[in-house]
Each structure stands twice: as structure tokens, then as C-alpha cells.
UniProtKB/TrEMBL annotation:
Topology in membrane: Multi-pass membrane protein
Biological role: Part of the tripartite ATP-independent periplasmic (TRAP) transport system.
Statement: the UniProt record of this protein carries the keyword Zinc: no
Subcellular location per the Swiss-Prot or TrEMBL entry: Cell inner membrane
Name of the protein in question: TRAP transporter permease
Pfam families named in the record: DctM
GO molecular function: transmembrane transporter activity
Main location: membrane
Record key words, sorted: Cell inner membrane, Cell membrane, Membrane, Transmembrane, Transmembrane helix, Transport
Amino acid sequence: MTQDRSPAPQQGEDVKSLSADELQALEEKFDPELRFRVLTRPLAIGASILLFLLSCYHYYTAGFGIPQATTHRGLHLGVTLALVFLSFSAFGAKETKPSALAPFGLPLTDWVFMISGAIAAFYVPWIYADLAFRVGNPLPIDIIMGTILIVVLLEAVRRSMGWPLPVIALLFIAYAYFGRHMPGILVHPGASWSNIVNHLYLTSQGIYGTALGVIATYVFHFVLFGVMATRIGLGQLFIDLASALAGRYAGGPAKVSVVSSALLGSISGSSIANTVTTGSLTIPAMIRIGYPRHFAAAVEAASSTGGQITPPVMGAVAFLMIEYLGVPLTTILTAALVPAFMHFFGVLVQVHLEARRLGLRGLSAAELPNVWKVLKAGWLSLVPLVILVAVLLSGRTPFFAAFWSITACIVVLALQQVMASGIIDGIKGTIHGVWEGFILGARQSLAVTAAAALVGVVIGIVTLTGVGFKIAYMVTGVASDWAIAVSGLLSALPFEIMGVQTLTLLFTLLLTAIVCILMGCGIPTTANYIIMVAVAAPVLGLLQVQPLVAHFFVFYYGVLADVTPPVAMAAYAGAGIAGSNAFKTGNTAFRLSMGKALVPFIFVFQPALLLVTDGFTWSAFALAFGGAVLGIWALSAAVSNWLFAPLHWFERIILALAAILLVAPDLTATLIGIALILPTAIRQLVANNRSGSDGPLSRA
């Protein structure tokens, strides 16, 4: 990663934009899921046909009915594993020349992995009629096939995502096998290899479980929709709309970054892809008007990471939640609205305060697109998204909604092609567009499918050994000890701030958040969420946290890993575009994402913020929402060193303390927080008026 070699550019300084090839290389550098190798022509044709057929299969089943679960999952997994070993090389080589050891340019080891993995994946659906008689009493061939599939999955995920998830899976397998040698509460009788394979391979608690089912039934369709929606110009429309709506205000390009990433995140769940896509435009523009390079990159990374928590896709986690929680998708999407708003609000406030502190301008009218012209030219690309949301809200299944939205994308693509090129060329262009879109959609699902199947191994070990509840007991025990110690110190105060029970929950949340962030380093959001649901969510359940709230908590902190050093991939991708210091960019992106870090604690203590939790009242929601908004604003001012004017050091401390009180689920604490803010705010307003500068919400 390049280092900062010069001071921040002055306003008006030109900044070199990266080419399409450079952006693609940057995306591949930080996202191993996109490091596809170059195939020889025969294999490239075969892989393209297989990818296209996989998309066609899912498109058809979404609209006309999904087969029996094990058959559907096995077919999806078998084809995916074959494509993984066609698409990803063992050690990152981009191309292999044909030879005796590499027929058609594919090494013999890859042929073995590809064929054996596909056969092992297809085997379970093939014996499905006899499966009930095999579970608990597997045949030797069952153990052989299961062992093959586990080994192939470990290698497939290592190639497509790196080492973290395979290492975790191996540790869990070792725990199951060597259980009797484990220390303390972690000890268990241990399981034979036959029992382990039986549980992971032949039951619905392992590889063929919920994780793989959700990917095959929901996630694939929405990945395909996102690709097709981008091809018809929906992503570009979002960027143009964001520019038209937010670009004129102080620090305009940074606000464009926040708004466009929020919009683009509604159809895409990849924080790295979002960073590169929108950042290629917004980061140079931010630097050009005077933002420091690391700050410009951090804004784009923090905003793009927020795409994973933005309805309706939410990085595919929304569909996992409906399976785990057994609630309608509309419940999940409703619960996600306010926390997502809080994240983008937090980034936007810091962006604005930084712009006011640096005296940055907005974009001129000549630099901005006209909102009505943008809508007039691109309104057609909005139709599939409207259809998607309408069908989802009607109560139909998510995959049925995806079917109609993908169909709408194809129709819109056809209309665009015909209007641009005439009927004959338009038909050709449509066929070409669908062909490429279906291939790209299937290709982008490969790594997440392999990861979901391997996560099934982790989940299977958890259910086989009961280790999730043992970990929960250990964590709550440590948190309880800390709470008692701190409570003793606080007892010297003349009033009670927090009781032992509240402190226990607070420390449990802190420990859980740290584990989620650590697990998220190098593991994609969906896989991280699934593991955390099995391991961390039971911890919160022991403390009577509602399941919906617990799931959202671990989800949010898993996502935060993308902007948390030392493995902040989205931030590093942004730094690559900006030419800034990677670690400094990551630290700044984490600071900008503090709304996402703060809000989960708020909705655990005050679940009304999620709108659909048990015991919801509007008064509780108003207190939580108002406190969160003021708290994020106060904390943003403290870290930005600007409210309406520069802050003294002690004012920053006061604002940070006020922020903590404002987000507490207590009216008294909120009022004290407001009282702490008022003197600083009044002094700031006076200083601002004396300087003759504009207020904080004025345009540049």
C-alpha cells in the first residue's frame, strides 16, 4: 500500500483517476472472491455455459418452484464446487499453460478436486430416499464421501476466501474429536470420525443445513438481481441522484459518497465492491476540493460498508435472519431502518463538520447533474427495484420477488437496447446482456456458497458438542465478575448509575462485540453472522436479550470488521484509490463508523429503536431515537474538534461524556447529557457569530 508522500492537495488541485483495469486490479487485491484465473478457450467456454445454466436454474426455480431442499442444495453445491476449482487457482496463479500435468491448462489436482467434490455433493441427494436409514448408521461409502466433501470444502474456501474460515473449521473439528482432552468446562466425551462425518454430511445440521439453504434459495437470486440491476444503469442512477441532491452542500463530494453508497447498498452487499465502484468517482472529487487523502478514502469505505446494513438486501443477512428467527422479511427490514439511518447520519455529520472545519466548498451548479434530467433519463432502471420492494411488502416469498425483479431487469434491458439500437441489434444486445449478467451473477456467488457450506461444518460441531452454550456460560461468568468489581467501586457514589445486572449486560456486550470484530477479520459478512449466531447470540440470550436484538447486535459488529484495522479491507481498497496510508485510513473509517458501533448498544438497552420488538412504545422509541441522534452528533463534534467553531480540549471531553449519557436508555441521563451540551453549544454559537461565518447547516 502506498504511503502519504505529500500534504493534502489544495482546493482545485487535480487528482489522477484510476482506469477501469486499475480499479479491477485494486478490487481483486482486497477481495479474494474476485481473483478469478484466466482459462484456456475450451475451459472458458465450458465454465461460461455452466455459470449461465446455474443462473438459469435458479431463475426458473425462483418463479416456478424450488425442488426438495436436500436435492436443491446438493445440486447448487455440486455445480458451485466444480466452478470454484475452475475459477480459482491453488496459489493465486492467473494462468496455467496446458501440459501433461495440466490438461487444457487446469492442473491435475484441480481436476481431482473438481470432480470428486461434485460427486460427493451430488451423492447425498442421490441417496435421499434411503437417507433416513443411513443417519446414525452410515455405510463406509457414506463416510468416504463425507470425508471427501469436507476436504474439498476446506480447499475451496481457502482458494476463494483465504485461510481464516478453513482454520476456524479445522479447530472446531479438532474440538469435536479431542473433546475429552479439553480443559475445564469445554470438556466433552469426544466424537469418532464416523460420528462427526455422519452429523456433518448426512443430517440437516451440517453442510446441507440452513446456511447453504439460504444461499441456494435466497442469496443467489439477489446477487443475480444486483448484477442485472447494475447492468441496466441503476447503480449509476443512484450516483447521479446523490450528486444532484447532496453535491451542492459544504464538502459536497463527501456527502455524495455517503448518499450514493446508501442507495447503492440497497442492491449490493459487498463493501469492497461498493468502495471501488463509487469511490472511483467520489474519492478524487473529495481530494480535489481539499479533503485529506486518508479522510476521503475513509469516508467512502465507511459509507460503502453501511451498504451491508441497508434494506432490502443487507448483504444477504436479511434472508438468513428470516430462517433463524422465523419471522417475516418485512419484520427484518423494518427493524433495520433506524439503525441503518443512524450509521449514515453519523458519517454525514462528521463529513459536514470536517468540511466546516476545513472551510471546504460544495460543488458548483455547473459541476452537478440536474435531478429532473437524471430521473427523466434513468427512471426506467428504477422499475425493477420498485417491483422488488412491492412484491416483498405484499408478503410473497423473497425468491419470488427476486424472480419478478430479475424479469423486470431483462425487460428494461430489452427496451433500452431496442431504443438505442433498433429492433434487430436491440435483440442481440439484450441476449448478450442477459448472457453476461447471468454469468457474472453466478460467478459472484461461488465463494459465498462454498463459505456457507463450510460454515455448516462449524454449526454442525456446535450442535454436536453444545459448545455454544459452554462459551455463553464462560463469557457471562467473566462479565458478571467484572460487573461485581465495578459495582463495588461505583457504590462510593451518592447515587446509583448502573446496577450489577446492567453492568453484566454491558460487559457481555463489549466482549461479544470484540469477538464479532475479530471473527470478521478476513471472513465475509454472511459467514461471520452465521458463526456468531451459533456462538455469540446464546451469550446474549442468557441475559434475556430478545432474539431479534441479539441477531442484529452480532450482525452489526461483524460488518464493522471491514473498517477495523488491522484487517479493514474496504478501507484499504479506498486507500488504494486515494494513494493514502492504509492504516491511517482504516482508523479514520472506524471513527466515521462510530454510529454503527454505538447504535447496537442503544438498541440492546432500548429495543424500541428496532420498531418491531416486544414491548414497543412510541415514547420509548422517541427517547431512544432522540438520544441517539443527539449523542452521535455530540460525539462527532468531539472527535472532529468542531461544533460551530473550534473546540477547547475540555469541551471535547464534555461532549464525549454527554454523548454517553444521551444514548443511555434513561430520561434522567438524557436530560443531564443535554444540560452538559448547552453551555458548549452556546459558547460555540457566540464564537461562530463573532467570526462572521455561516452556521453549520449552511451551504458553502
